[in-house]
Design a protein that fits this description.
Order of helices and strands of chain B: HEEEEEEEE
CATH architecture of the largest domain in chain A: Alpha-Beta Horseshoe
Distance between the termini of chain B: 41 Å
Number of strands of chain A: 19
Number of helices of chain A: 20
Radius of gyration of chain B: 19 Å
Structural class of chain B: mainly beta
Strand order of the largest sheet of chain A: 7-6-5-4-3-1-2-19
Number of domains of chain A: 2
Largest sheet of chain A: 8 strands, mixed
Shape of chain B: elongated
Structural class of chain A: alpha/beta
Number of domains of chain B: 1
Radius of gyration of chain A: 24 Å
CATH superfamily of the largest domain in chain A: tm_1862 like domain
Oligomer: heterodimer
CATH topology of the largest domain in chain A: pyruvate-formate lyase- activating enzyme
Shape of chain A: globular
Strand content of chain B: 25-35%
Helix content of chain B: under 10%
Chain lengths: ~550, ~200
Amino acid sequence: MRWVALVGPELEENLSLRYLAASLAAAGFQSRILAYNSDADFGSVLTAITAADEPPFAVGLSMAFQWRAPDFLALAVALREEGYGGHITAGGHFATFAAAELLRDFPALDSICRQESEATVVALCQSLVDGRPWHDLPGMVSRDDSNGGGARFSELPAMPDLQALPWPVRTGEPARCFDHAIAPIVSSRGCYANCTFCCIAAWHEQTQPGKRYRLREPGDVAAEMAAMQRERGIQVFVFHDDNFFIPNHGKSLARLNALADAIEAAGVRDFATVVKARPGDVTPAVFKVLVERLGCIRCYVGIETDADQGLITLRRWGQSSQNHRAIEVARSLGLFVCFNMLMFDPDTTLDSVRKNLDFIEYAADYPFNFGRVELYAGTPLLARMLAEGRCSGDYLQWDYRLKDPDIQRFYELAMGCFMPRNFGEDALANTIQGMRFDLEVARRFHPEAHDRRLYQAGTALSRRLSLDSVATLRVLVDHVTSGGAENDAALVARLAARARAVEAAVRGEMMEIAAELHARVGRGVPLTYVGDRVATPLQRAVATAVSP
Amino acid sequence: MKKTLLPEFLPAPIRGGAQSPRERVAERARLLLERLRGLGPAAGAAILSLQCSGSGYTVVDPIPPPPMQCTSEPIPFEGIHPGQVYETGTTLPRPVVMALVTSGYPPSNFVGYRIDAVRVTGGTLVSVEDLSQTGGGGRTEFQITIARDSGPPGTLFVDVDFACGPAAATKRYSIMFPTDPNGPITAVEIPLPVDGGTD
């Protein structure tokens, strides 16, 4: 059996790998998706490749996430250490933008597949099997031995026709919330915006300068949804479009209605959706259709910042008023939304922080998380910071200091207090979003179990956590600006201890709400119970075979 | 065709100096392979990668954590300092435990360190425990337990060989026991003798 190993995160069904697997299958190649979510998977992935009766003739590493690149590179090195002699390629956003550096530094890699690689991977595999040269295939980056081993870039690949692409493979059992099956899907690729920190925008700007997005036909999306429901019982469709909307409210409205019509015609019933939007996309007319016709029960709204300075630094192409309008529209429609705040960017000022804290308070009925803007390969923000000489580290992990020393100090203090809440295992800022999602799933699918008191208790609880975060951050701001008598370490120790106590109390109440909801629904389990742990059985299944 | 690329890919750890991406990754691969083969000390905690919290369908768009690995620091060992020092057990003289921790809050709160060796003057090393926690909110904490040759007052000297990826450094600590039995035991870092300096 000649086969291809596709290695990547499978925290959710990994559509990038599954699209590749589908294209490979259509071309007659068998592939296996090997989930590599953490170090715990290292051994199983390694042995699935090296101890196979017939090792794969090619290994594809999904390097979309920059911060996990060292894991995948270490796997490539280990594969060579264990004697694997097949072709190792890598793809995804990070690999695309760091192709030259990766090939320079890691001889374990044979090539990089740039950009959307369905056609590239198939052509590469065909060339490898046939023993033909592959270096000049569109999308390939290789070493140029005639040029000292420097990177040799072939032309960028043609963008795949989204209508012609085979649907992603859907092997394995889907994740479930109260026994309602969940799966991701995309109705488009790309985003019309061009934020400075976003590698997705940078990626699509490379192949579609100025436009940066492509849409699938509503009928094709609906047909895929119908197949997912028919074959796997999917009821919650998580649209992982980079942006579910297009930059014209009238056209967005028409597209959503067309999709709703197509879904209805395709016979998809009793379903819900989850989508992502920019604040400017959120209008009463568009979102009324989103909620009423497309069954949206959760929308991630990319607020990111409410400060004028942040909106400019991040090139958000939006205004504070749009952020506020998005929240007001969500409230008027009873739509659950969540958001992130990029509280720290290279130019953040104390005024920006205060403005963002005001916004979080204003929107405290919706859960949020906050962090620092990181510097991703290929982005205008990284280019700017490099030009300004402000980056430390290297391309595997760029770091930087914030321009204002007070803000840098505030950032360090904030991380000291909030790391467990925002980024730790079962980080409450995230898991409480799961509890809110559980309430929405119950409200959508089990109206008899929906209890207004319980629903309000859940909202109040996440509000309590949000306001506690704001209050703690305000103490830190005051400390930095007023030169408080307490030293930094003592302050962090005191506030962190208090924050952990608040989290313990909130977590306890969250579990009580989940338990009561669980009892009322009477089937499956809520996502709150799952927390940050495995959400899909595919993570337990090391390998998923995909045959032509 | 089988490719044979060793030892190019997995070099023995080098001591000192900045780590290149290739060196960091090679070290990481070596540690992961050692753990897989059941080799190496405390395969553990110190090499686990950061997990992005909010995996699965709990969060739509999780924020990644900021970098925290010690390997991203040009001088990775500056942040390690003595934490709590206390006596333990009942046999006299009572053994002493010294904690070595990273600074109290990130991003100074790096993880990924290991201790390669401990040498004690004035006592006998009992154990070295790595209680570090990785991932968001993690921190470095080593607990070194020492049996004293004689009771207080007095001073113990402890040399610790730290490593972070291929970088290494030796630090010397002095643990001082007060004449007042109710007084605090203190531990401080002291300069190494000139002929026994940092690698």
